[in-house]
C-alpha cells in the first residue's frame, strides 16, 4: 500500500512539474514570438543594407597610401631623376619645372579636369557637371572594379590628379635646358586640357570610346606614357636642338642623383600600378608583383644590351632600364601573370635601349632626357604586349574565349589614336605658345644656364 501511495505521489509530482513547464512555455510564447516577428520584419531592412555599396577602411587606407606614393614619384622622384641628367647650370630649372607643372595641373584637375575626364558619360569627353568639384561631398562615392564596393570620391579625385600631374611633368624632359619657364607652363595648360583629358576619358571614363572597344590599359600605358612621349618628341622638334648639341659635352652632372630619383620612381610606381586596382585585393597584389619583377628584368636586359653593344654596363643604363620596365609593365600589370610580366620587362630593356640610341639617331632629334625613347617606345611596347600576355594560356587573367589577335588589334587602335591625338594637339599648343610668349630662352641665357637666367639662383654654391 505504501509503495502504491509513493508511486502515485511521484506521478502527481511529475505531472505537476510538467504542467508547470507547459504553463511556463505557454506564458513565454508571446515573448519568444516577439523577437522572431522583429527578425522577420527586419529581414527586408537587412537585405536592403546588404545591397548598399560597401566602403572598406582597408581600401580607403590603401588608396590614400597609393596617392602619396604617386606624389613621391613626381616630387622628388622624377625631379631628381631628370635633374641629375642635365648639366649643373640647369639643375634647378628642371626641379622647378617638374614641381610647378605638377602643382599647376593638380589645381586645374580640381577646377575642371576631373569633371571633363570623369564627370559624366561620352565617347571622347565627359561634361562640366562637376566643374569646381560641384556636388562632391564627404559622402560621395566612386566605383571600383567590384560592383558593390566603393571608395570615397575625394580619394579617387586625388589619385587621378596625381596621374595628370606627373604625365605633364614627364614632357619637360624632352625640351630641358632651353625652354622658357612661362612657355612650359602655358604649354602644359593647353596640352592637359585638349589632349590628356580626352585620352583619359576615352580610355578610363564612363562611355569612353576605347574603353567601349575593350582596350586594356590598367595604369596608363596610353594615357600617361605614350601620350607624354609623343608630346615630348614633337616638342623636341619644334623647340629645336640645344646650342652645341652633338659638338659640346652634355653629360649628366650627377648620376648619383639620377639613381636616387630612379629608385624613388620604382618605389612610387607601386602606388601608380597597384593603386590603379582601386581596392586592396589580389588584383592589387598582382599589379604589385608585376611592377617588381618586370622592372628588375628590364634592369638586367638593359645592362646586358649595353655590355654587348658598348662593352660595359653603366649606372645610367641600369637606372634607365628600371624606368623602361616600369613604363612597359604599366598597361599590363593588372592583367598579365608574373612570367608574362618578366618577359615584358626583358623586352623593354632591349627595345628602349635601341629607342634612346638607334631610333634617336634615326630621328635626328634632341630629346634631351629621352622621354620618347623610354616612355613613348616603352609605352607602345607594353600596350601591344598587354594584348598578348593577358591570354589565360600565357598566365594572364583574360577570359577563356580571349583572342590574342583581336586584342592586339584593339590595343594597336588605342596606341594609334593616342599618338595622332597627342602629336596634333602638342604641335598646335607649341605654336600657340611660341606666338604668345616664345618658346626658347635667348642664346646667351641658354649658355649661362637657366638656373641663373630664369630663376636667379644656383643648385650648388660657387
Compute the number of strand runs: 3
Topology order in helix (H) and strand (E) letters = HEHHEEHHHHHHHHHHHH
Uncertain stretches of 5 or more adjacent residues? 1-46
Strand order of the largest sheet: 1-3-2
Biggest sheet details: 3 strands, mixed
**CATH topological fold name:** Ammonium transporter fold
Number of helices: 15
CATH architecture annotation: Orthogonal Bundle
- Number of structural units classed as domains: 1
Work out the radius of gyration.
30 Å
What is the top-level CATH class? Mainly Alpha
- CATH fourth-tier homologous superfamily: Ammonium transporter AmtB like domains
Mean pLDDT, to the nearest integer, reads 91
Secondary structure class reads mainly alpha
Percent helix: over 70%
Amino acid at each position: 500500500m505504501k509503495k502504491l501511495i509513493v508511486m502515485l505521489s511521484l506521478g502527481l509530482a511529475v505531472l505537476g512539474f510538467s504542467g508547470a513547464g507547459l504553463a511556463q512555455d505557454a506564458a513565454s510564447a508571446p515573448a519568444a514570438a516577439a523577437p522572431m516577428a522583429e527578425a522577420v520584419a527586419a529581414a527586408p531592412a537587412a537585405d536592403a543594407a546588404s545591397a548598399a555599396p560597401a566602403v572598406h577602411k582597408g581600401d580607403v587606407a590603401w588608396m590614400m597610401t597609393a596617392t602619396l606614393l604617386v606624389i613621391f614619384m613626381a616630387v622628388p622622384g622624377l625631379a631628381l631623376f631628370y635633374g641629375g641628367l642635365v648639366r649643373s647650370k640647369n639643375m634647378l630649372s628642371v626641379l622647378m619645372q617638374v614641381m610647378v607643372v605638377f602643382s599647376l595641373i593638380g589645381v586645374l584637375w580640381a577646377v575642371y579636369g576631373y569633371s571633363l575626364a570623369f564627370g559624366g558619360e561620352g565617347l571622347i569627353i565627359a561634361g562640366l557637371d562637376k566643374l569646381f568639384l560641384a556636388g562632391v561631398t564627404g559622402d560621395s562615392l566612386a566605383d571600383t572594379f567590384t560592383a558593390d564596393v566603393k571608395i570615397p570620391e575625394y580619394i579617387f579625385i586625388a589619385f587621378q590628379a596625381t596621374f595628370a600631374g606627373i604625365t605633364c611633368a614627364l614632357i619637360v624632359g624632352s625640351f630641358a635646358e632651353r625652354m622658357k619657364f612661362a612657355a612650359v607652363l602655358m604649354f602644359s595648360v593647353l596640352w592637359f586640357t585638349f589632349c590628356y583629358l580626352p585620352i583619359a576619358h576615352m580610355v578610363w571614363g564612363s562611355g569612353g570610346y576605347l574603353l567601349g572597344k575593350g582596350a586594356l590599359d590598367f595604369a596608363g600605358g596610353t594615357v600617361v606614357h605614350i601620350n607624354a612621349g609623343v608630346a615630348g618628341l614633337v616638342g623636341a622638334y619644334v623647340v629645336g636642338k640645344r646650342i652645341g648639341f652633338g659638338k659640346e659635352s652634355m653629360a649628366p652632372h650627377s648620376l648619383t642623383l639620377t639613381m636616387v630619383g630612379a629608385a624613388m620612381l620604382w618605389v612610387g610606381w607601386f602606388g601608380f600600378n597597384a593603386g590603379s586596382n582601386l581596392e586592396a585585393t589580389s588584383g592589387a597584389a598582382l599589379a604589385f608583383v608585376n611592377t617588381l619583377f618586370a622592372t628588375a628584368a628590364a634592369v638586367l636586359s638593359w645592362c646586358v644590351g649595353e655590355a654587348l653593344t658598348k662593352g660595359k654596363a653603366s649606372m645610367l643604363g641600369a637606372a634607365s632600364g628600371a624606368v623602361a620596365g616600369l613604363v612597359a609593365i604599366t598597361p599590363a600589370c593588372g592583367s598579365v601573370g608574373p612570367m608574362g610580366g618578366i618577359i615584358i620587362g626583358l623586352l623593354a630593356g632591349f627595345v628602349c635601349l635601341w629607342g634612346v640610341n638607334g631610333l634617336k639617331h634615326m630621328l635626328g632629334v634632341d630629346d634631351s632626357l629621352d622621354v620618347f625613347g623610354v616612355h613613348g617606345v616603352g609605352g607602345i611596347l607594353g600596350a601591344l604586349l598587354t594584348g598578348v600576355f593577358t591570354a589565360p594560356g600565357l598566365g594572364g587573367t583574360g577570359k577563356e574565349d580571349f583572342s590574342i589577335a583581336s586584342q592586339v588589334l584593339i590595343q594597336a587602335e588605342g596606341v594609334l589614336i593616342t599618338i595622332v591625338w597627342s602629336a596634333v594637339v602638342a604641335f598646335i599648343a607649341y605654336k600657340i605658345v611660341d606666338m604668345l610668349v616664345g618658346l626658347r630662352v635667348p642664346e646667351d641665357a641658354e649658355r649661362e644656364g637657366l638656373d641663373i637666367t630664369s630663376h636667379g639662383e644656383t643648385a650648388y654654391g660657387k
